[in-house]
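Email to the structure team, subject: L-asparaginase model.

Hi all, the expression group asked for a predicted structure before they design truncation constructs. Nothing fancy, just the tokens so they can compare against earlier work. One-line instruction: predict L-asparaginase, return tokens.
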Amino acid sequence: MQRPVIAIISTGGTIARRSMDPRDTVDYAEIGASIGGSDLLAALPEAVRARFAVCYIPFSSCDSVEMTLARWFDLASVVNRTIAARPDLDGVVITHGTSSLEEAACFLDLVLDAPCPVVVVGAQRPASAISADGPANLYAALLVASCPDAAGRGVLVVANNEIHAAQEVTKASTYQLETFRSPDFGPLGMIEANRVFFGRAAGYRRHVGWPEGYGSGGEIPRVDISYSHAGADGVGIRAFMAAGARGIITAGMLPGMCTPAENVALDEAVARGVVVVQASSGYCGGVVRRQELCQRGILAAGHMRPRQARILLSLALMTGADGDAIQALYDMP
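Reply from the structure team: attached below.
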């Protein structure tokens, strides 16, 4: 039986960290040591490794809090080059820190158009911890990346034996293993008894593509997030404008509303040509473009959470999309 060919592209994060104390699941990020992707693979039993023909590609040892859109563009370039150079490739697995994993997966899903499955995976516990989840998550990711049914579903996130769509998933818990959840629509599938099962299709996929001009002088526009709270006075919004923001995502109070003072500042931003998108700080549920937002020229983020809405807006601005085109992307579904 021919073994599936999988490329593992490694970045940093918990899955690639080790502590001297097997009880440490907290301080390893600051005082632990980094390990490479080949070490992650070596942690799997030989019988598991023998199921796959793996080519290992180191990308970086950056923790996920150090990631930026520019670094994710570089990561996407590595994915594209790897797929182009290996026509025999069955899938790609990207190891990534969980703090910004939902942003990384969303970014990759918005720009990549890969013919094979691309799976992003991380861990909640370092490799040295008792019951470390990294090896099990990596094995599950390899199974999904080698599954023909995973192709054509966009970038996938695999964790805790669940498969999530990149644009629907969020990190919900600081330390628990079942941290990645898709609160509005649920996971796409699961890994059970060494088999991959898909229970539903995403039904849609926002896709921006690779912005023309990036890499040849094109800049990544500044887009910031303003978090609403009782008594917020709009000072942060005006500070973002002063810093040169071309877009502002407002993480409003549910169901997507801001204080009167914030609204004044947001209207000032719209008048200056800043694209403003109303999102919600809630765990689930969407923001619709109700009449008041339409009258004020403010877009609605739909079911995208603020951090993912920021990535979409940054990429859309790079393509030169107008407000209607950007709103159409947010409106899926």
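The longest helix spans residues 69-85. Residues 73 and 108 are 8 Å apart (CA to CA). Ping us if the truncation boundaries need rechecking.
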